[in-house]
């Protein structure tokens, strides 16, 4: 665990604003593994949908003696990815975080609510809007989908890839940072070469 806080860039959302944090009463080890599952969900679905993963990591530090803070970051690049698959990849992080709580006997309504990462949803909404796709926070826009529908897509894919997600989560918890190629080696999923092309 770091003693110095991460940079503002590491703690910012895609707009440059600080990501919101929710307090989740867990031990350091439990919170760290939960964040590792969150980032593993993003990374594994990225690969499954043909995106290039650069790195995935857990960032933990002590804001003050006796306290800890945990977040994570997955760097990826879309490779002409289907818009709804891109949105499902964004939804996979919070979803796998909740599934971790359930699988490890840690689920409570309050902890599940704290897993909701609005920055993941807002990233999906903004990315899709740039390409003419409508993603509604709490409704189904005309010719679009709702965040709930996208979460359903992610849930099905996560179910099929739970073994790979669990493998990556435990590895990133142990090593702190994994490259996309390291994830490929441990899961058999393909990490396509970088070639550009959003959505």
Top keywords for this entry?
199 residues, alpha+beta, 13% strand, three-stranded antiparallel sheet, 7 helices, two-stranded parallel sheet
Description:
The chain has 199 residues and is α+β, with helices and mostly antiparallel strands. It is built from 7 helices and 5 strands, in the order αββαααββααβα. The protein has a 3-stranded antiparallel β-sheet with strand order 2-1-5. Strands 3-4 form a two-stranded parallel sheet. It is globular and about 50 Å long.
Total beta strand runs: 5
The topology string of helices and strands comes to HEEHHHEEHHEH
Low-confidence stretches: none
State the strand order across the main sheet.
Answer: 2-1-5
- Radius of gyration, in Å, reads 16 Å
CA-CA gap between termini? 35 Å
Helix share, percent: 40-55%
Number of helices: 7
Rounded mean pLDDT score: 90
User: How does the major sheet shape up?
Assistant: 3 strands, antiparallel
Sum up the overall morphology in one term: globular
Strand content: 5-15%
Q: What structural category do the secondary elements indicate? A: alpha+beta
């Amino acid at each position: 665990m770091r003693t110095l806080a991460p940079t503002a860039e590491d703690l910012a959302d895609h707009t440059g604003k600080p990501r919101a944090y929710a307090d989740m009463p867990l031990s350091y080890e439990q919170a760290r593994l939960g964040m590792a599952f969150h980032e593993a969900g993003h990374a594994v679905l990225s690969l499954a949908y043909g995106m290039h993963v650069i790195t995935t990591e857990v960032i933990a530090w002590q804001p003050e003696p006796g306290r800890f803070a945990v977040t994570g970051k997955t760097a990826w690049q879309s490779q002409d990815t289907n818009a709804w698959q891109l949105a499902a990849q964004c939804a996979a992080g919070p979803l796998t975080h909740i599934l971790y709580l359930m699988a490890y006997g840690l689920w409570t309504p309050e902890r599940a609510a704290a897993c909701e990462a609005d920055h993941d949803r807002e990233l999906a909404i903004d990315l899709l809007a740039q390409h003419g796709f409508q993603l509604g926070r709490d409704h189904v826009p005309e010719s679009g989908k709702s965040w709930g529908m996208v979460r359903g897509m992610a849930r099905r894919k996560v179910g099929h890839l739970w073994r790979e997600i669990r493998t990556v989560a435990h590895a990133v918890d142990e090593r702190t940072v994994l490259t996309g190629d390291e994830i490929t080696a441990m899961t058999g999923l393909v990490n396509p070469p970088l070639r550009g092309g959003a959505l």
